[in-house]
Specification:
Length: 180
Amino acid sequence: MGSGGRGSRTRIKKRCEDFSRSNAPTDRPKSPGGRALRHPKPWELEVQSYFRDRGCGRAKKRGTRRLLLARRSGVIVAAADTEVSISKDGDGSYVNFFICAVAINVSERGKGGRLARELVQVLKDCAVQKAREGGLPRAKVYGRIDANNEPSVHLVDDMGFELEQMESVHLQTWSTMLGV
């Protein structure tokens, strides 16, 4: 974590909060019709487009949340589309925390994976938080990764995820079960 103001490093605030919450500045730009635009920063529009193409889908499913994961100097640098549900197996009920998509600002990409590692940890923490809120003892965190995306495959492998399923030649499902 940066020290907030020294050199080019700035503090990244990471938290698990609904992306739709009103965190936007009050001086939001207006559309030609005079309506306040929801996401004033260009990258936020890029994120919305990314989620439409790769996220949980256009239809808002029950349990689907858009999470703001990190800000740097007030600018959103990472967000995720997640789907939360309750599942049951032989050991009882648990939270199913599916990571549909993660978007990282292009200005933050290719910097050694530090932000990506922190974001995966934030998502794991969010899943545990959901399990605690629901009084459940476990949370399963999982997502699909393109097998050709070697940095992401190495990252989740290093962070305790296991390859659960090969859905196609290129698509893999990785998961981890966390105790609360």
